[in-house]
Design goal:
By secondary structure, the protein is of the alpha+beta class. Strands 1, 2, 3, 4 and 5 form a five-stranded antiparallel beta sheet that branches. The chain contains twelve helices and five strands.
């Protein structure tokens, strides 16, 4: 008997034609959707151009009118000037200086020119000329990297730094942790800035008892360290003198007895090197101490002070009054015309339904 091969079930066969048809329909739907969207955008753009064409006179009137009105308003305004004061607070005075600046700015916002003039030591008219005052840290990537390195050096236990990477450290920094800060002042009086410097630097920062105590303790510590260095220097000088005397007596004995005494050159060199190393360490400590004393001589170091005359404040293009008026006028006109068109369309649509 001849064996017959099993026939394949037609339902198990894959109809490739149907698959390709489905895929083709899918892509056709996607293309149609894109075509519809592009056509809609094109129609909106044409409608926008037609709207402008139909109302070109209105747009010209509103545009020119808002620009002229903004220019006239700006021409009657006082010029605005600004200046900056860069400082380096010491003895933990950063929080206090931030609090003082916030207090002054609140008085400006409240237009309390009397209290402001008393606090800053200026006339009420000069106080009325102030527009804004604020402070912020001077920060850049190099400064933050330096602070991050110092942070790692201060922690002896390396396990405690686990999970504190650079980005985490950067996100958790607060203003008071930065060494340098900048105070920004805006005013209509270009000559008021130089009068503010002493008042800002000599505010509550100078009368704060906690800060004054920190300053006193720091100065006393510097004085103590200075005396300790002087004592160490005196001991080194004494050792050098004693060593010289011993050497001189040894030479005299050798000359008187006529015998030869061999001194160990290694030992002599060792003594000289020890004294030299000690003296070098003291000199390095002295340099660091003098630098610290110079940097912390005042409660607040002035890195860059106010100038005798402020700088003219340049307003950004989109912050200028004519540009603002122009944008608002155009948007208002577009809104009005759109509502008018929509109202007409709805009226026609209702008529068609009723018909």
């Amino acid at each position: 008997m001849s064996e017959k091969l099993p026939e394949k079930n037609g339902s198990d066969e894959i109809d490739l034609g149907q698959v390709f048809k489905i895929i083709g329909n899918f892509f056709q739907s996607v293309f149609n959707l894109i075509k519809t969207i592009l056509a809609g955008i094109f129609n909106l753009f044409i409608g926008f151009l037609l709207l402008i064409k139909e109302n070109i006179i209105k747009f010209l009137i509103i545009g020119v009118g808002t620009l002229v009105a903004g220019y006239l308003l700006d021409s009657n305004k006082d010029l605005i000037f600004y200046d900056t004061l860069k400082i380096q607070p010491n003895f933990g005075s950063t929080d206090q200086i931030y609090s003082d600046i916030k207090f002054y700015n609140n008085l400006i916002l409240a237009k309390d020119t009397i209290e402001l003039s008393n606090s800053l030591g200026i006339s009420p008219d000069e106080a009325a000329s102030l527009i804004e005052i604020y402070i912020k840290p001077i920060s850049d990537e190099n400064q933050i990297l330096k602070m991050y390195d110092e942070f790692n050096e201060t922690i002896q236990d390396t396990l405690s730094t686990t999970g504190i990477n650079y980005e985490t450290f950067k996100l958790n920094l607060i203003s008071s942790e930065f060494p340098n800060h900048i105070i920004f002042v805006k005013s209509t009086d270009p000559f008021v800035f130089i009068k503010l410097e002493n008042s800002i630097l000599n505010g509550k920062v100078k009368t704060n008892k906690f800060l004054k105590n920190n300053q006193k303790v720091t100065v006393d510590n510097y004085s103590f360290k200075d005396k300790e260095l002087e004592k160490r220097e005196a001991k080194i000088d004494s050792l050098r003198i004693i060593y010289s005397k011993v050497m001189l007596k040894s030479v005299e004995k050798q000359a008187n007895s006529g015998t030869t005494i061999q001194f160990s050159e290694n030992k002599t060199t060792s003594h000289e090197l020890d004294l030299f190393k000690l003296e070098k360490e003291i000199n390095e400590e002295r340099l660091l101490l003098n630098t610290d004393k110079a940097l912390t001589n005042d409660m607040i170091n002035v890195v860059s002070g106010f100038q005798r005359r402020g700088n003219l404040f340049k307003v950004e293009f989109f912050d200028k009054t004519p540009i603002k008026f122009f944008i608002i006028g155009m948007l208002a006109l577009f809104g009005f015309l759109f509502i008018k068109k929509l109202n007409t369309y709805l009226g026609d649509y209702k008529k068609n339904i009723d018909a």
